[in-house]
From TrEMBL:
UniProt family annotation: Belongs to the 'phage' integrase family.
A Gene Ontology molecular function term of the record: DNA binding
PROSITE patterns: CB (PS51900), TYR_RECOMBINASE (PS51898)
Protein name as it appears in the record: Phage integrase
Sorted UniProt keywords: DNA integration, DNA recombination, DNA-binding
UniProt xrefs under Pfam families: Phage_int_SAM_4 (PF13495), Phage_integrase (PF00589)
Source organism of this protein record: Glaciecola nitratireducens (strain JCM 12485 / KCTC 12276 / FR1064)
PANTHER family, A to Z: PHAGE INTEGRASE-RELATED, PROPHAGE INTEGRASE INTD-RELATED
Domain Core-binding (CB): 6-87
Domain Tyr recombinase, first and last residues per copy: 104-283
Any Gene Ontology biological process: DNA integration
Amino acid sequence: MSPQNEIATPLRQRMIEEMTMRKLMPKTQTQYLRALRKLTQFLQRSPEDATAEELRKFQYMLAETGTSNLTINATLQGLRMLYCNTLKRPKVMRKTTTLPEPRKLPNVLSVEEVKRLMIATTSVKYRTALSVAYGAGLRIAEVVNLKVSDIDSKRMLIRVEQGKGKKDRNAILSPVLLKQLREWWRYAHAKNLMLKGGWLFPGQQPINPMSTRQLSRGCKAVAEAAGIEKRVSMHTLRHSFATHLLEANVDIRVIQVLLGHSKLETTVTYTQVATKLLHAVVSPLDALSQ
């Protein structure tokens, strides 16, 4: 049973109300409710009167059972919402500790692999959605939430409304991508797949957008069909967008704006996977032979 479908206890309901007041995203709310459920199962009672020592033992149990640092930190974040905001008992968290999370380099496709991916996509709808992710650097949720009216062909921009962090931004709209979008628009209207002024990528019912799960599965299926051995997701296309721009000598601060990153250090990560930049560096060992 998912956290959202569980029977509402008074404490759980108070937590939901607290999160709703703060306008937390549904995904975040589900994650925080999962933390509440885990702690309740561990204590075998309502966690409302849990002690700091019990929370310490709870974190120890998570670590002992092999729970990843990422999951432990996410669980503690949910418990902070519970104890700091819902119950107003912040001191009970004093014996818990956030763990360092391993930082992995983003998975990136080469230009040739992106071409293979697009060629292997037989669906006009999916090819266009993948092209938006790669051609404009959008996140999967931003792709599926696009409306037809978000495509500004006069200014050659894609308006991204309420992206990650509840922030609006403009993404680039290239002439090639605009051509593909128009082809998809004509095809979708001819097949009655799209409502006038509705979602750019409708789901099975045009009144709803395509789900992120549906698009994610489609992306992975296409990558398999293209014979790409790397792990490929929609976010891989966003990573590839940033890396290929960097390799084309686009200013990193411009890339930061296009990606909607709040901090430049997040964008700087792509310098570590931009192979053309790395290959341009002369090793000091090579200098010895000159």
